[in-house]
Amino acid sequence: MLAKGRVQILRTGTSSTMQAEQLMREFLRMSALDSEWDWSKAAVIARQWSLLHPVLAFCERNGIPAQRADQDPPQFWRLRETQMFVGWLDEQGMRPVSRASVMDFIKTQSSGPWWDLLTEAVENYGLECGEGPLPAAHLKEWIAEWGREIRRRQRGIMLLTAHRVKGLEFDHVAVLDGGWEDRGRNEDLDAARRLYYVSMTRARKTLTLAEMGKPNPLVARLEGLESVF
Q1: H or E element: which one contains 3?
Q2: CA-based angle 113:119:123, to the nearest 5?
Q3: Cβ distance 143 to 135 under 8 Å?
Q4: Long-range contacts of 87-93, Cβ-Cβ distance < 8 Å, separation of 24 or more
Q5: What is the pLDDT of residue 151?
Q6: β-pairing, 2-3 with 7-12?
Q7: Residues 6 or more apart whose Cβ sits within 8 Å of residue 137
Q8: What is the pLDDT of residues 150-185, one digit of tens each?
């Protein structure tokens, strides 16, 4: 069921694994049709963390960048690759280094996501500071500041619970089924409905509501999905 092409109810299998599989395959289908699709602008929201584990496993198997909202990203400055890069810069001292010489050093290292991230940093440094040679110490200071900013950046599809989603927005949102009938400590009878509604309204472009096995009563109570936006 689609409403203006932006809201979809996705009826999945009866297990959390089947739900994760069908949901992520739907996201893959949508990403293939959208030339501007960006995994860092997508999110999967669940009532419980356990329902997100199969989603993360699917992402890892299929090379989809993903991150959990309950886990801080590694500190960029403490990465082994960053420390190797900083060590090379220290060896240069106050001698000017060009962007080309820095990129040559990176190219001699093993490939991997963190070297790709350092390549991105050097490219941004060139855009901000120009292509001319500058002291290596200047680049080192710039990299340290850039690393603090990168920790706050979403780098893949975000996996989070409804309790953590307030105040956030994403282009593409999927809300998993399961556990919405449970009530946490100090939650009133209407807490699930409010959390579900907040989760739905985090979507800017597309919203996918999963139903696992049988109709979700929270979805059934919605009057006109087009009103979500």
Answers
A1: strand 2-3
A2: 145
A3: no
A4: 89/136, 89/137, 89/139, 89/140, 89/143, 90/136, 90/140, 92/136, 93/136, 93/137
A5: 65
A6: antiparallel
A7: 89, 93, 94
A8: 766 777 899 999 988 888 899 999 999 998 877 766
